[in-house]
Design brief:
The complex is a heterodimer. By secondary structure, chain A is α+β, with helices and mostly antiparallel strands. Chain A has a 7-stranded mixed beta sheet with strand order 3-5-1-13-10-11-12. In chain A, helix 10 packs antiparallel against helix 11 and helix 17 packs across helix 18. The radius of gyration of chain A is 28 Å and the shape is globular. Chain A starts with 19 loop residues before the first helix and ends with a helix. By secondary structure, chain B is of the alpha+beta class. Chain B has 2 domains: about 10-85, Ubiquitin-like (UB roll); about 95-165, [2Fe-2S]-binding domain (DNA polymerase, domain 1), CATH 1.10.150. In chain B, helix 2 runs antiparallel to helix 5 (about 150-165). Classes of the chains: A alpha+beta, B alpha+beta. Chains A and B meet through helix 1 and helix 17 of A and helix 1, helix 2, helix 3 and helix 5 of B.
C-alpha cells in the first residue's frame, strides 16, 4: 500500500460523490422510471378489515383475464420464514390472501392494465365477501385470556418468547436503589421517499426472469423469489436500478414483488407495481413498537447492579422474509444492557402476533427502543441517587482500559473510549453553562438537557446469524476489481447503493490500494447477473464488508500491476510505487493504460512468469471476528418545552461519535445526520396508531408527521477515530447509529425540563398531546397530594 | 375552461423546458403522470401523490407547483420547467445543482428534483432571498436522507453565488 503518496481521493478524504451528477440532472433511474415496451401496471385489492374470513370473491364479468386471486397463483408458495430459535412459530404469508385476511391492507387480488389508473378501476369492480372476526389490536390484547387467534393453529399469539437470566435475585435483594419504568415506543412506518416498486419481465434472449426491484439485498431477493416461485435461481436475475432510500424496508421480500414476478414468469410480458404512499402507510412494513417493563438495581452512587426486564413487541400478522418477526426481540434481549458494565441481567421478551402489517427491522433495528429504555433507566437512577445523569452514565460506561470487553450478553465491544465521548458531548453541549443559567427561557418555556449513549453493532456476521437460523447467514462478501485495457478500474460488488454513497466510498478504497485516479474508477453494484455475491446492504455492514472485499481484490490487482510494471521498467516489484495517477520506479513512470495495454493487447511485453489471473480478481472478505465492530456515540440535546401547548423545540443537538476509520467523513456525517433526523421523527412526531377495529389511523402524510426542515436542529458533530482491531483499515459501520439515540436524548431532556412540574415522559413520540396529558396528570396528582396533606394537617 | 368528457382523451400541449410537447390525456390524468409516462420526462418524481412531500414540484409559468395536484389538461398552453431543464448543458450543472453536489445536499436523490425546482423558482423571483425565505420554501419538501441542514447550506451557498454573479451583492 502506498498511502503516503496517495492523498485527496483515498481513504479518509472528503471526496464529492459519483452518484450526484445523474440525480441532479434528473437522470437517475428508479423502478418507476424504466420504460419497457408493453409494460402493464399492477394494482392490488387490499383488505379493508383487520381480521376476517373470506367467504367469496367475484371477478367482474368479461374482465376475468385481468384479475388474479390466490387460486390463480396456486403454484406459488407463501412467504414462510424459518428460524432455528427454539419455540419460534412459522407463519405462512400468502402472496394473495387465501382463507383469511389478517391486517388492513393485506393483498387479496391484483389487476393488470396498461396504466395504474385503469388497473385501479378494475380493482373497484371486484367483490369480496367477508365474515369479520374480532381483531387483535395490541400486543397486550394478544396475550390476554380472551384473545382471538391470528393464526388458529398456533393456539396462542406468540411468534416467540425468549428468556435470559444470569441470576439477579441475590444482587437485587441487596441493592440500595431500585427504579421501575414502563416505557413504550409507537408503531412507525419507514418512508424512504421512493416507495417500494418492482418491474419484472421475461428476457427471451437470456432465458431469464428479470426483476428490476427497489431493494437493499438483490442477491437475497433472487433466492427468495426462486423459492416462492419454485423455479431455479439460474433463471432469475435481480437487477436493481437506483433505490430511493431503504432504511430496512427494502430488505424485505414482499408479496407484491413475488406477484409481479409471477405475472412476468407466467405471461412472459412486463409487469410493474409501484407502491404509493397510502400503501406504504397502511400496508408497508411496520416498525419500532416495543413496550418495556424495567426494574433496575443500583448502589447508592448509581452504579448498576442488575437489570430485570420484560419486553413486548407488537410483531404484526406475519413473519417477514428474511428477518422474521423475531429478530427484533432477539436484538432487544442482546442489546438492552447497552454500553454499560452490567453485572446481572434478566430479560423476557414476547413477540406477539397482532392484526397489523408485518413488523420489520428499521434503521437501528431494536436499538432505538433499547437505547430509549436503557437511557431513561440511567436517568431514573440518577434522579433516585441525586446525581447528574451524565455522571451516573460515566460511572457505568465500559472503560477504555477494559477494551476489548465482553458484556453479559456476550457482545464483544472491540475498541473505543465510551466515557470520553460522553464527557466530550457534555462539554460541547455546555452543560455547566446551562446548569448555571435560567431553567426557563424568555417565553416561559422550560429548558432541559438530556444525554444518550449507545453502541452500534455493525457488520456482525456468520456465527451471530447462524444462531438465529434465518433463511440466510452472511459469510464472506465478494467484490470483483478489474483494470481495463485503457487503464481504468472497474469494481463490481453484489451489495447495492440506496443513497449511502457506496459508488464513491468503494472507489476511494480501490484508489487507495491501486492508485488509479478516483475519476477513472467505475462502480457497478447489485445486479445478480454481473456482480459477485453479497447478502446486501443492512446491519451497518456495507462499508466494512464490501469495502473489505474491494480492498482485498484491489490489492491483488495492484500486486499484479506492480509485477508487470516492474518487468516493463526492469526493476524489482518492491521498487514500484503509485503516485499522481501513475506508476513509478524512481523517476521513471508508466501510465495504467500501458499496463492494461501490455496485458490485453501487447502480451509480448509481459514477463514469462506472469500471473494468469490477469488484471482482474474476485476476492472475498469478512472481519476476523463475527461478533461485529462496535461503533459508539453519545448524543446530547437541549430542548425547550412549552407547558401550555406541549410543543418541544430542539434548541441544540450534539453528537460525538466513533465509527473507526472514516473512509469519507462527509458521508459519515451525512449518514449520522440523516439517521438522527429519523430518530427525531421517532422521538417527537411519527406514530401509526390503530383503532379498536384494527383500522390504521395514519393513512396520509398529514396524519403521519415526518420531520421537515423547520422541525430539525442543526446537528453539531465531533469525531473520534478508534480503529477496530478486527476489520480492514479499522473501519466500523455507521449507517444506523444516528437513528438510535435521539428518542432517548430528547426525552431525557424533556424530563429534565419538566422536572419542576413533576412530569415524567416514558413514551415516544413525545407529541404535544402526550406532554400536555402528562402535565395535566402531574398537576392533578400534585393537587391531590396537596389536598391529602391539607386534610392530614 | 371548456367542458371535457371524462371518457375521452384530450390533447394537452405546452412548452417543456423551452420545447413544445404534446400528448393525449384523460381528464383525470395528473400532470406528474403525463410528464413521466406520456412525455417520458421521468426526472420529476412522485413521492406521495397527495401534495405533501414536494418531490413532484415543477415550475408552471415560473411558479413552483405540485405536479401531483395538477391535471395534465390544466397545463395546456403553459410554460413548464422541470429538473431536466435546469442544467445549461448535459455535461454541466447549474449554480444551484453544483452547490447541492458541493454541500452534499442529496443522498438517494429521490426528493432532489422537486427541491431544486422550488429553490430555482425562489431564486429567480428573489435573488436576495434570506435564510428565513429559503427555509420557508423548503418547508414544502420532505427528505428522509439528509436531515435538511446540508440542503440549507447548499441553498445558501447557491444564493450567495447567484447574487455575486448578478452583481446584487
Amino acid at each position: 500500500m502506498s498511502t503516503d503518496q496517495i492523498t485527496g481521493e483515498g481513504i479518509g478524504a472528503r471526496v464529492l460523490r459519483k452518484e450526484d451528477d445523474r440525480h441532479l440532472h434528473g437522470r437517475g433511474c428508479f423502478v418507476a422510471d424504466i420504460a419497457l415496451a408493453g409494460t402493464q401496471e399492477v394494482a392490488f385489492l387490499r383488505s379493508p378489515v383487520a381480521h376476517a374470513r373470506i367467504l367469496g370473491r367475484t371477478k367482474p364479468v368479461g374482465r376475468e383475464g385481468t384479475i388474479f386471486f390466490a387460486a390463480d397463483l396456486c403454484d406459488v408458495a407463501p412467504i414462510t420464514t424459518r428460524s432455528s430459535i427454539p419455540g419460534y412459530k412459522l407463519s405462512e404469508y400468502p402472496v394473495l390472501a387465501t382463507d383469511k385476511v389478517r391486517f388492513v391492507g393485506e393483498p387479496i387480488a391484483m389487476a393488470i392494465a396498461p396504466t395504474r389508473a385503469e388497473a385501479e378501476d378494475l380493482i373497484e369492480e371486484i367483490e369480496i365477501e367477508f365474515e369479520e372476526l374480532p381483531p387483535v389490536v395490541s400486543a397486550e390484547a394478544g396475550r390476554a385470556a380472551d384473545r382471538p387467534l391470528v393464526h388458529e393453529q398456533w393456539g396462542d399469539n406468540l411468534f416467540l418468547e425468549t428468556f435470559f437470566d444470569s441470576g439477579i435475585d441475590e444482587v437485587a435483594a441487596q441493592a440500595s436503589v431500585r427504579v421501575e419504568l414502563d416505557v413504550s415506543c409507537a408503531r412507525q412506518t419507514m418512508h424512504p421517499m421512493e416507495g417500494k416498486g418492482a418491474l419484472a419481465h421475461w428476457d427471451y434472449r437470456a432465458g431469464q426472469l428479470v426483476i428490476h426491484t427497489s431493494t437493499q439485498v438483490p442477491h437475497l431477493i433472487r433466492a427468495g423469489l426462486a423459492e416462492c416461485l419454485k423455479i431455479p435461481q439460474a433463471i432469475v436475475r435481480v437487477s436493481p436500478p437506483d433505490v430511493g432510500g431503504g432504511f430496512g424496508y427494502k430488505c424485505l421480500l414482499q408479496p407484491e414483488e413475488i406477484a409481479v414476478a409471477w405475472l412476468a414468469y407466467t405471461l412472459r410480458t412486463p409487469f410493474r407495481w409501484t407502491e404509493d404512499r397510502r400503501e406504504h402507510l397502511v400496508a408497508g412494513a411496520n416498525a419500532r413498537q416495543h413496550h418495556y417493563k424495567i426494574r433496575a438495581y443500583a448502589d447508592s452512587q448509581g452504579r448498576l447492579l442488575a437489570l430485570d426486564s420484560e419486553v413486548m413487541v407488537d410483531a404484526g400478522a406475519y413473519s417477514v422474509w428474511p428477518f422474521t418477526a423475531c429478530l427484533e426481540a432477539a436484538q432487544i434481549g442482546g442489546n438492552l444492557p447497552g454500553p454499560y458494565h452490567l453485572p446481572a441481567y434478566r430479560c423476557r421478551t414476547y413477540s406477539v402476533a397482532t392484526n397489523k402489517p408485518p413488523f420489520a427491522p428499521y434503521r437501528g433495528v431494536a436499538r432505538p427502543g433499547v437505547c430509549f429504555a436503557m437511557e431513561l433507566t440511567i436517568d431514573a437512577i440518577a434522579r433516585e441517587v441525586g446525581r447528574e445523569a451524565w455522571e451516573v452514565r460515566r460511572d457505568n460506561l465500559v472503560a477504555a482500559s477494559a477494551m476489548p470487553y465482553t458484556n453479559i450478553t456476550k457482545k464483544h465491544y472491540d475498541s473505543g473510549d465510551y466515557p470520553e465521548a460522553l464527557i466530550a458531548a457534555k462539554d460541547m453541549i455546555g452543560l455547566d453553562r446551562l446548569r448555571a443559567g435560567e431553567r426557563r427561557d424568555a417565553r416561559g418555556r422550560y429548558l432541559g438537557v438530556g444525554f444518550a449513549s449507545y453502541t452500534e453493532q455493525s457488520a456482525h456476521g456468520t456465527k451471530v446469524f447462524a444462531a438465529w437460523g434465518l433463511p440466510f447467514v452472511p459469510g464472506f462478501d465478494q467484490a470483483h476489481v478489474k483494470l481495463t485495457p485503457d487503464g481504468a478500474l472497474e469494481i463490481k460488488a453484489g451489495i447495492h447503493t440506496i443513497g449511502q454513497g457506496l459508488e464513491t466510498t468503494l472507489a476511494q478504497i480501490a484508489h487507495e490500494m491501486t492508485g488509479v485516479p478516483f475519476r477513472d474508477i467505475r462502480v457497478t453494484l447489485g445486479d445478480t447477473a454481473t456482480t459477485p455475491f453479497s447478502t446486501g446492504a443492512y446491519a451497518s455492514r456495507g462499508i466494512v464488508m464490501s469495502g473489505g472485499a474491494v480492498s482485498r481484490a484491489s490489492s491483488v490487482v495492484a500486486e499484479r500491476i506492480k509485477r508487470i510494471a516492474a518487468h516493463l521498467m526492469q526493476v524489482r516489484a518492491d521498487a514500484i510505487t503509485f503516485a499522481n495517477g501513475r506508476i513509478y520506479a524512481g523517476q521513471a513512470s508508466l501510465s495504467y493504460a500501458e499496463i492494461g495495454n501490455a496485458w490485453y493487447l501487447r502480451p509480448e511485453q509481459l514477463p514469462e512468469e506472469v500471473n494468469t489471473g490477469g488484471l482482474e480478481a474476485t476476492e472475498a472478505y469478512k472481519p476476523s471476528v463475527d461478533t461485529g465492530l462496535f461503533s459508539y456515540a453519545t448524543h446530547a440535546s437541549v430542548v425547550a418545552v412549552d407547558a401550555e401547548t406541549g410543543l418541544v423545540e430542539v434548541l441544540d443537538y450534539v453528537i460525538v461519535e466513533d465509527c473507526g476509520k472514516m473512509v469519507n467523513p462527509m458521508i459519515v456525517e451525512g449518514q449520522t445526520f440523516g439517521g438522527a433526523a429519523q430518530g427525531i421523527g421517532t422521538a417527537l412526531f411519527e406514530e401509526s396508531p390503530y383503532d379498536e377495529n384494527g383500522q390504521p389511523l395514519a393513512s396520509t402524510l398529514l396524519d403521519y408527521i415526518l420531520p421537515g426542515p423547520a422541525e430539525l436542529p442543526r446537528f453539531r458533530i465531533a469525531h473520534r477515530e478508534t480503529l477496530s482491531p478486527y476489520s480492514a483499515h479499522g473501519i466500523k459501520g455507521v449507517g444506523e447509529g444516528g437513528a438510535i439515540a435521539p428518542p432517548a436524548a430528547i426525552v431525557n431532556a424533556i424530563n429534565d425540563a419538566l422536572k419542576p412540574l413533576g412530569v415524567l415522559i416514558q413514551d415516544v413520540p413525545a407529541s404535544p398531546h402526550r406532554i400536555r396529558a402528562a402535565i395535566v396528570s402531574a398537576g392533578s396528582r400534585s393537587a391531590a397530594s396537596n389536598n391529602q396533606q391539607g386534610a392530614a394537617s | 375552461m371548456p367542458r371535457l368528457s371524462a371518457a375521452r382523451r384530450h390533447t394537452a400541449a405546452f412548452t417543456l423546458n423551452g420545447r413544445v410537447v404534446e400528448g393525449e390525456a384523460e381528464p383525470r390524468m395528473l400532470l406528474s403522470d403525463f410528464l413521466r409516462h406520456v412525455i417520458g420526462a421521468t426526472g420529476t418524481h412522485v413521492g406521495c401523490e397527495h401534495g405533501v412531500c414536494g418531490a413532484c414540484t415543477v415550475q408552471i409559468d415560473g411558479e413552483p407547483s405540485r405536479s401531483c395536484l395538477t391535471l395534465a389538461l390544466q397545463a395546456d398552453g403553459a410554460d413548464i420547467r422541470t429538473v431536466e431543464g435546469l442544467a445549461p448543458a448535459p455535461d454541466r450543472l447549474s449554480v444551484l445543482q453544483e452547490s447541492f453536489r458541493t454541500h452534499f445536499g442529496l443522498q438517494c436523490g429521490f426528493c432532489t428534483p422537486g427541491i431544486l425546482m422550488s429553490l430555482d423558482a425562489l431564486f429567480s423571483r428573489a435573488p436576495d432571498a434570506t435564510e428565513q425565505q429559503i427555509r420557508e420554501q423548503l418547508s414544502g419538501h420532505l427528505c428522509r436522507c439528509t436531515g435538511y441542514a446540508p440542503i440549507m447550506r447548499a441553498a445558501l451557498a447557491a444564493a450567495e453565488q447567484l447574487r455575486r454573479e448578478s452583481g446584487h451583492a
